[in-house]
Design goal:
The chain is mostly helical. It has one domain (14-129). The chain has helices at 14-44, 48-80, 92-101, 108-152. Helix 1 packs antiparallel against helix 2 (48-80). The longest helix is centred in the C-terminal third of the chain and has 45 residues, at 108-152. The radius of gyration is 24 Å and the shape is elongated.
Amino acid sequence: MNKAGTVQRKIQTPAEELIKVLEDEIEAVLKVIDYLFEQQDALVIFSGDSLEYASERCNQASRKVRLLEKERIKLLEKYIKGTPAESLGATPEGFEKWIASLDNRSGTKLKLIELRDKLRVTIIDLVQLNLVNKMLMEHSMNFTQNKMQMVTSNYKRQIVDHKI
């Protein structure tokens, strides 16, 4: 706080601001992965309530990831103006070219590269886990459908007593 009683913030460089957003985005993606594992557990034990709860949490965390992604793109668009990367826009190539143009004396260039790579690997992990969960979901749906066909004689009549 200064003498006037207001909070003074340290002015961040564009790279530092982007580093913060990337760190937040990685953390949010890791949360989504945690919830995908919860979904996977629920699918394996056939727990509908657990699956619904994990899915809700996953959807909330996914919204946060989308917001952070939009913020990252917005910052990149803002910071690449007037640089050699401007012609590429806020694309992965534009990001690469912008990083390459940074001075590395403060270590931010290396940190950005590290975070970019970590985000990329984390997203790949998320996609793979999502594919496994999709396969488990399809298996669960097929299992349920097959059991219903057995119980109802292919949906034509009820074979099993109501009390079962």
